[in-house]
Q: What sequence folds into this?
């Protein structure tokens, strides 16, 4: 009788223990030696967003490593034996589980796990902001900085894609200056306009108009089913995304661009997420503002340098010419004194005049070259390049084959200046290094993209200097690369088929959005921006 009572007590205690395990606040699971679920409690099934019966026999996300060393403790890990894994639920939601394991008889492993997604996301956001701040303090082009910022936002919240767009100085055109997730595409804005022409309504200016974030739920699926978005459907469908948020870039209360965030399926935009996006948009705005200030400082420095040259022109060349005039007057006075002019005096004055003239000519040529305004400001990009080519051909004997596509006259002056400098640097490199007989220069504008190619028939360049110049190069190559990247473009240098070298620069041109029917002009905190709303949600 006593043994029966003890057995009944053990059965009741076992049942109570099983009930405690089943209703424990953390997830508990038993995993077999192949890493598959054998048992899982109620909390564990809820964390995995699946019924326990459907989980049994499926592969668990946990790595069955025992004796986890404290030496492998991560910066944000909670304990020396805790690990972290990722679980993608059937709904598409991504969870990060912190878990501990313990071996039990029968080649089984007990796993205790909990969801740490929100905690780790907060930590990644802090790290992303710190890294971005460090990037802003380092050297680099504005596209390098904004690309890095887009990658930080993408990784911190495990988003599908991020785009950072900026307004140009006229505040009438947008261009992509930073991107992560989507593959690069130079004709992106041309395809947006094609969607608009098919009836899609663009709302990407909502954030710019209002000066505050705009969130569009379930946007990805709608775009994939809307016929108006067919031209961009393939591009916007990889990777897959669902919710969309657009945050304005604000500088001293003025909107200078927008950051678009594309959320993976299952993700939603909450208050904390929006706060993080706003913080990173502020970082992007600081980068854009800093780049604008640098450009302004450089322009100021150029103006100051021209003033200095003008002052030097007055202090040197003008004085030298005045001295020449005085020497000529002396010779005139000398000649008027007698019928016979002393030869020694004439030679001395002539030598002095010759020396002054040569010095003045040397100084004048140098200063005029520095003071001369860029040719494209007077002639346009095509004629400026032709004038430069004619001068180079006369000086070096190089033969040039030129092919200018249509539309160069519509390229903005600032972009034209950088393209001109890239072309002249490429030709100078041919003259200095290529030992070439001829140079071919081609320009083409297609789908709002300017492509310029300079090829020669010279001796080529060493293999280690071939390919794109993103990783470095001399001062000239670095300058060419930075000028291209300033406009979101790319520079490639490589061998030419048949011998020689090819330099190719591709620059996406800013898109000026035509006014909607009725000539609508958008007003808002960004100031006056002509055209349709372009930036917030790709919405219809």
A:
């Amino acid at each position: 009788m006593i043994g029966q009572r003890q057995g009944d007590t053990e059965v009741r205690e076992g049942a109570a223990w099983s009930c405690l395990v089943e209703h424990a606040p953390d997830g508990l699971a038993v995993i077999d030696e192949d890493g598959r679920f054998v048992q899982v409690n109620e909390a564990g099934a809820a964390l995995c967003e699946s019924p326990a019966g459907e989980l049994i026999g499926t592969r668990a996300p946990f790595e069955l490593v025992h004796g986890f060393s404290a030496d492998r403790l991560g910066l944000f890990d909670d304990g020396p034996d805790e690990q972290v894994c990722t679980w993608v639920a059937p709904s598409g939601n991504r969870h990060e589980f912190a878990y501990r394991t313990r071996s039990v008889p029968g080649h089984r492993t007990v796993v205790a796990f909990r969801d740490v997604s929100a905690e780790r996301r907060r930590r990644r956001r802090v790290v992303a902001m710190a890294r971005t701040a460090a990037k802003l303090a380092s050297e680099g082009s504005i596209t390098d900085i904004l690309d890095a910022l887009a990658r930080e936002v993408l990784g911190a919240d495990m988003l599908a894609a991020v785009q950072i767009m900026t307004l140009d100085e006229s505040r009438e055109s947008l261009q992509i200056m930073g991107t992560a997730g989507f593959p690069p595409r130079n004709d992106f804005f041309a395809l947006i306009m094609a969607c608009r022409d098919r009836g899609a309504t663009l709302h990407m200016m909502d954030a710019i108009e209002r000066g505050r974030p705009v969130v569009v739920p379930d946007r990805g699926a709608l775009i994939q089913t809307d016929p108006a978005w067919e031209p961009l459907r393939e591009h916007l469908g990889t990777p897959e995304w669902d919710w969309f948020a657009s945050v304005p870039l604000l500088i001293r209360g003025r909107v200078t661009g927008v950051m678009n965030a594309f959320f993976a399926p299952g993700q939603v935009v909450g208050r904390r997420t929006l706060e993080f996006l706003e913080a990173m948009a502020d970082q992007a705005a600081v980068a854009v503002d800093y780049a604008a200030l640098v450009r302004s400082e450089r322009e100021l420095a150029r103006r100051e340098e021209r003033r200095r040259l003008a002052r030097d022109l007055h202090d040197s060349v003008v004085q030298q010419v005045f001295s020449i005039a005085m020497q000529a007057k002396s010779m005139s006075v000398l000649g008027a004194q007698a019928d016979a002019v002393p030869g020694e005096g004439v030679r001395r004055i002539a030598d002095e005049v010759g020396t002054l003239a040569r010095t003045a000519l040397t100084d004048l040529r140098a200063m005029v070259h520095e003071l001369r305004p860029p040719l494209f400001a007077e002639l346009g990009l095509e004629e400026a390049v032709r004038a430069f080519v004619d001068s180079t051909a006369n000086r070096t004997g190089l033969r040039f084959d030129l092919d200018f596509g249509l539309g160069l006259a519509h390229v903005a002056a600032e972009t034209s200046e950088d393209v001109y400098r890239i072309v002249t640097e490429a030709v100078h490199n041919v003259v200095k290094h290529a030992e070439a007989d001829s140079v071919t220069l081609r320009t083409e504008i297609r789908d709002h993209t300017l492509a310029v190619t300079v090829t020669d028939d010279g001796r080529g360049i060493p293999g280690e200097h071939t390919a794109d110049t993103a990783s470095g190069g001399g001062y000239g190559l670095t300058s060419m690369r930075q000028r291209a990247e300033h406009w979101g473009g790319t520079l490639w240098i490589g061998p030419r088929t048949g011998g020689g070298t090819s330099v190719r620069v591709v620059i996406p041109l800013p898109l000026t959005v035509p006014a909607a029917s009725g000539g609508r002009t958008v007003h808002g905190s960004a100031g006056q921006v002509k055209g349709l709303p372009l930036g917030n949600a790709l919405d219809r």
